[in-house]
Amino acid sequence: MKRVAAAVVAGLMALTAMAQDRTLRVDYIFSGTDKSQEISLDEMSTFDGWAGRRVNLDEVPLRGNGQISLTDAQTGDVLFRQSFSTLFQEWQTTEEATRVRKSFENVFLLPMPSAPAVVKVELYDFRGNVSSSLSHAVDPSDILIRRLDPQPAPHKYLLKSGNIEDCIDVAIVAEGYTAEEADKFYAEAQVAMEAILAHEPFGQYKDRFNFVAIALPSEDSGVSVPGEGLWKKTALGAHFNTFYMDRYLTTLRLRQMHDRLCGVPYEHIVILANTDTYGGGGIFNSYTLTTAGHPSFKPVVVHEFGHSFAGLADEYYYDDQFVEYYYPDCEPWEQNISTLYDFESKWNDMLPQSTEIPTAPVEGNIWKKFHEGVSMESMTGVYEGAGYQSKGVYRPFPDCRMKTNAAESFCPVCQRAIARIIEFYTVEK
Fold this sequence. Notes:
Blueprint: H1 2-16, E1 18-32, E2 37-48, E3 66-72, E4 78-84, H2 87-91, E5 102-113, E6 117-124, E7 130-138, E8 146-147, E9 155-160, E10 168-175, H3 182-197, E11 209-214, H4 254-261, E12 268-273, E13 280-283, E14 287-291, H5 297-310, E15 317-318, H6 366-371, E16 383-386, E17 388-395, H7 412-426
């Protein structure tokens, strides 16, 4: 009881140290090569309202590939902390990064402090070590913190479970829809929301979410496909062929995106691209982007939201290993994969008795087995092949929404990981 009371007191102290009716937006440029990183402050701005979490402010549920923290300049108390991943760090693993230096925009939303504070940004390498960092002061009276007076874009709520203080606010955003295609976008946004809520544990926690569809108008219909020489004028400048990969669909214009969304409360972003070409991407605590016209739209948007919302890793792999992201001498921070370096911190407690590690592959259609009465829990194991690597990285289940589009649900381990994130955002520890 004393521990709970202390946590509540600490939370109240953090809240009083911040202007909870305002948001501090901090824009950075991350730049470098495959072997170098540099973090530069671009601009700070502020606007009315704070749609972020109001509990567990000084903690993060997952380490992520980076973290940003806000601390009181006088006391050193942590006022807010958030973990994240970036396209920049992913790009550093590409061949292009070995021969050119590039820069990437990154935008973070923090509660506005009521007194001078310090912001610190850290990026981590694949072993979790700090690879670069930047600290800088924030003074609420600074005349160069731009005050924004946003004009909300056209939008409508698809689900309003409560006020922004109590709920997780998800913005579903139009990309490549003209003003005349707004109704088409709203209908596809409804499909996206329903697909997410149809997957547990999202359905179980439906009353903790608000979903708002933001119909950003684009001059052109569709999105850019550089590989075909096709460049469109769209709201967010999204395009396929990210990192020269045909199906990788992203936007690099994060400042533009947050400019356009300002005025509508949001914490998490799902971007729907108006195209029937297969593709997409999901970046932890940044955004999900997927195509709304492809037949696999529903499983893909849920899969990518698993990345951006819950920090889940891909559970598929390539026979040639593709690229090595995970090493045997450290444990991945993602909760649904393991190198077995510190398996006790993962799903060891969910394994049925006498489970072999590694677990032998399961033959046949596992979803048919479940429909015939076999429990999912009984098939939880330690199956080799995950995180793009065929050897040395393990997943908890034969198939899962984080592995294939054919999977019918998240596996039990992914469901628990998602539930933990939802609880972290909405319940004081």
